[in-house]
Amino acid sequence: MKLDRESSAIHLRSKREKFFKMGFWRRDHLTKLCVWELMLGPEFIDTYADGQIKRILISQPSDWEAIKQIGLFLEPPQEPTDAEIQLKMLAEQRARHAGVKSTP
Questions:
Q1: What b/e string do you get for 87-104 counting C-beta neighbours within 10 Å, with b at 16 or more?
Q2: What is the Cα–Cα distance from 44 to 48, expressed in whole angstroms?
Q3: What number of helices (H) and strands (E) belong to the chain?
Q4: CB-side exposure of 27: number of CA atoms within 13 Å?
């Protein structure tokens, strides 16, 4: 389902009170919640990733920590750097050589 600008605004205004009741009042937090609501779908807090967002909210002691943890959860995994790849390859080589017995 694609929302137009007006429908999106109406939908997000309806969420404002819910977000306030959940303890979110900072503009940057409300903005993130609204963006996630549009990107991840209606009622994303309850439905996205089998309720993982809701579990994060329940487990965090503060609004800012909840937003931080949700952001980390939603962040895509980073690609390893060349240096990290080289270190991993070196460690694998050392492990292989350590397992090989030298012959006289």
A1: eeeeeeeeeeeeeeeeee
A2: 5
A3: 6, 0
A4: 0
Q: What is the CA radius of gyration of the chain?
A: 22
Check residue 23 and give left, alpha or beta (phi > 0: left; psi -120 to 50: alpha): left
CB 43 within 8 A of CB 17: no
Sign (positive or negative) of CA dihedral 69, 73, 78, 80: positive
pLDDT tens-place string over residues 81-99 = 888 888 889 988 888 888 7
CA distance 102 to 81: 33
Q: Where are the beta strands (DSSP E) in 20-93?
A: none
Tokens 């009170």 correspond to what residue? 17
Percent share of the chain, pLDDT over 70: 92
Which has the closest alpha carbon to 16: 2, 29, 1, 3? 29
- In whole angstroms, give the CA distance from residue 94 to residue 89: 9
